[in-house]
Every structure is written in C-alpha cells, then in structure tokens.
Amino acid sequence: MLNLFSLRRLSWGSSTNGQEKVELSVVELESLRSEIAYLEEREAHLKAQLQHVDEILRSARFSGYLYIRTRWTALPGEPPPLDDTDVDDWLPRFVVLNGPCIFFYLLSTDLSPQDSTLLSDIVEVGSLPSLTRESDQTWHSFYILTCQGLRYECSSISEVQVDSWLKVLQTDIKSGSETKVPNGSRDV
What we know:
Layout: E1 11-14, E2 20-23, H1 26-59, E3 62-72, E4 91-98, E5 101-105, E6 115-118, E7 122-133, E8 137-146, E9 150-156, H2 159-178
Antiparallel strand pairs: 1-2, 3-4, 3-9, 4-5, 5-6, 7-8, 8-9
C-alpha cells in the first residue's frame, strides 16, 4: 500500500528496539489521508462500473464492439445524400441488444449509453458490401434502418460477428412484424 505514495518525502528514523519508523508532520499525514480517501473513492467508482457492466452483460441477449457510423436517409423531395464512402468516420462503440432496445455505448464500462433505438422502430436490417480499411483488412458490414430515417452502419473485421448480429436482428424484426395486427397496432 505504501508503494502508492511518494515515500521519498517521508523522513525515516530508528527506535531503540531496532525497528524503523516513519516520522510524519501533520501536513504530510493529512496529505496521505486525502490520497487514501481519493483512492478509496476511485476504487468504489470502478467497482460500480464493473457491477454495471456485469449486470448489462448478464441481461443482454447480444453484445460486442462494432464500428458504427450514422447516416440519415433523404426525405421525399430532397436531393440524394452526398457520396461519402471515402470518408473514414467509423467509430468504435459497444453495442448491446437488451430487451426491446439496442444500446450504443462509447465504452463497455460506461454507465449510460450514448444512443439507443427500439427494435420496434427498426424497419430494415441488411448486409452492406465489405470494405477495405486500415492495413488492407476486409471489414464486413451491415445496416440498421429506423422508421425515422436514421441508418446505423455497422462493421467489424469478424465476419462471424456481423453474421450473428444480422441473424439476431433479422429474427427479432421478423418476429416483431408478425405480431402486428391489421390496424397497425401491436398485440399486447
């Protein structure tokens, strides 16, 4: 534990029975106490993050890191979006399929997601052509299109991971559309 503190600033002395002891001033003692309190607070925060991640992963049906970029589809009457396929704006995100939602976290240790979408809002899921990125690696891709026109493009170097996400999402979307009744509402 003492290795965490800067011991150079502490003065050492010897007692008459041959044991070494540290002599601290009041200021040094208070400094050490504040460092210990900070470390205990940091430890509690990290434990909370770990418990949160554990809870998410235990309740999630599917999760993992994917590279994500978002696009909006053109509204009727708007010009088509610019071709930006050469723009490298893929960002790593920890994606979790939990219950009726997909959550997008910046990191797996984050306590709250940066974005989310309901499975019921997804109108289409499909494959995208593979692309070549950094160091000539092939990246496999798929997209998720929501009813609001937001398109999540997802990629990974693992074809198995992409195929698994596609299979799970397409199954969920298909089963969700089968529960619709003719007037457009859902069965409860």
